[in-house]
Amino acid sequence: MLKRLAAGAPVTQMPAALDEDGGVVVEGMSAAATIEAMAQGVEAAGARFQPGGATQGLGLDGKPFVGANTIRFSSLGKLSPAFFAMLDNEVYRQLADAVLLPNCGSYWVNSGQAMLIGPGSPAQMLHRDCMNWSQYCMPLWPNCPEVTLSAMIALADVSEELGATRVIPGSHKGATYGEKWDHAETVPAELKVGDALIYSGKVVHGGGANMTRNRWRKAMHLSFLVGWLTPEESSPIDYSDEDLAHCSPRVQRLLGHRSYDPRPLFGGGLWLRHANKIEDQTGIS
Ligand SMILES: O=C(O)CCC(=O)C(=O)O
Ligand SMILES: [Fe+2]
What we know:
Elements: E1 4-6, H1 13-21, E2 23-27, H2 32-46, H3 63-66, E3 70-73, H4 82-87, H5 90-100, E4 107-117, H6 134-140, E5 148-154, E6 166-167, E7 187-188, E8 196-200, E9 205-206, E10 217-226, H7 235-238, H8 249-254, H9 278-282
Parallel strand pairs: 1-2
Antiparallel strand pairs: 2-8, 3-4, 4-10, 5-8, 5-10, 6-7, 6-9
């Protein structure tokens, strides 16, 4: 079993649990009104998608990973401003700061995605999320710094039967990078609506099988990535300046509308967003 901590527990306990098992359940991480608004937006948009359409940008090769009877889509901030509130969630912020800021000046959104698992879906293949950046992580394994942190947030109660995310506790410290993992070693991270499974990019996990005949698993994935790596999703162009005009500077940075500043660590300025506008230099408007 993964440890379960209340969102109000001292945040210092959470990195310790995360470090020990590679994942921790934070109960009640998101406010009820926020989840309700997000869930409504996802429900309405989800009805417009064909199951099995998502490919992770990989065409047919991506389909086995996402599953034939699942619905996945991004740009959740277009559905409800609740998404921006989730990006500003204080508990997740503190955890992400603790895990990622030792390795970057700032981090940004890797994915903000509805992950709906349909009835009869088999378990997803087991993987580590950091495998998206294997060229960096593999040569350094198991000592590679954390580059990504994920949250699976329940938009409705998520039981084992419905396809709760399955995790192999401790596998983030496993000696070999890619191997054949045994589903029997996984444990389900069951969630009540508003709870979140927070997990290391290094831990082995996968979506669970939905064993029901007619019910969907309703959850969303919100992951962060060190600011010097390329995210899965193109948030910087998915959202316009106008979309984010009323968001906090943190949310604007998370969605790629501010530059990456490596300080206090060593490195260059990257993604020079509005750093030197032509209009500012030439007087052209
Ligand atoms: O759907 C889930 O529970 C997990 C999904 C996942 O781990 C992924 O797609 O990277
Ligand atoms: Fe994953």
